[in-house]
Specification:
Radius of gyration: 13 Å
Number of helices: 2
Strand order of the largest sheet: 1-4
CATH class: Alpha Beta
Helix content: 25-40%
Strand content: 15-25%
Order of helices and strands: EHEEHE
Distance between the termini: 22 Å
Number of strands: 4
Number of domains: 1
Length: 83
């Protein structure tokens, strides 16, 4: 999932995404999520964003069998948490 949100909404979107997915870098998240949790995430996201100004892109993969991940350069994000 990647997003671009207005300055006032960005912290709210960031916090919401971190509840469901792993932060990769800046406005980029990844992870496996159940269909039920994905529906909850979408519902909550609809309440937070402004559809006229913000953008959220979700990449849905049916299987992890044919996916891979390679980082070139510095690894960002990961398992750090902000309280």
């Amino acid at each position: 999932m990647v997003y671009d949100a207005g300055v006032k909404r960005d912290p709210k979107v960031l916090k919401l995404c971190r509840r469901y997915l792993t932060w990769v870098q800046n406005s980029v998240f990844e992870g496996e999520i159940t269909e039920g949790k994905y529906k909850m995430l979408k519902r909550e996201m609809e309440r937070v964003i402004n559809r006229q100004e913000d953008s959220v892109v979700v990449y849905l993969l049916q299987s992890t069998k044919y996916t891979g991940r390679e980082v070139i350069g510095r690894e960002k994000g990961g398992e750090t948490f902000i309280v």
